[in-house]
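Hi there, hope your week has been kind to you so far. For a while now I've been wondering how a particular protein folds. I'm sending you its amino acid sequence along with the backbone structure tokens. Could you read through the record and tell me how the tokens relate to the sequence? Take your time with it, there's no hurry, and the full record follows here.
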Amino acid sequence: MKARVTVMLKNGVLDPQGEAIRHALGSLGFSGVTGVRQGKVIELDLEATDPAAAEAEVGRMCETLLANTVIERWSVELI
């Protein structure tokens, strides 16, 4: 089983990388972009067979290591 974790900055937290991307896109002629939020995706290969247990375990991974829960939010998708 695989799990895909998406980690993004929480709303209200400044995203300087996202702003740099938005500015660069504008410089390259992509004028319709008004905002960018940059994040990360982590894919995990799991030995689990129970989806509910796997999702709970990955959630603990996020809370412990994969996300800074003070400024980031995360979501888990089992694939």
Q: What stands out?
A: The beta strands are 2-9, 39-45, 72-78. The chain has one domain: 2-78.
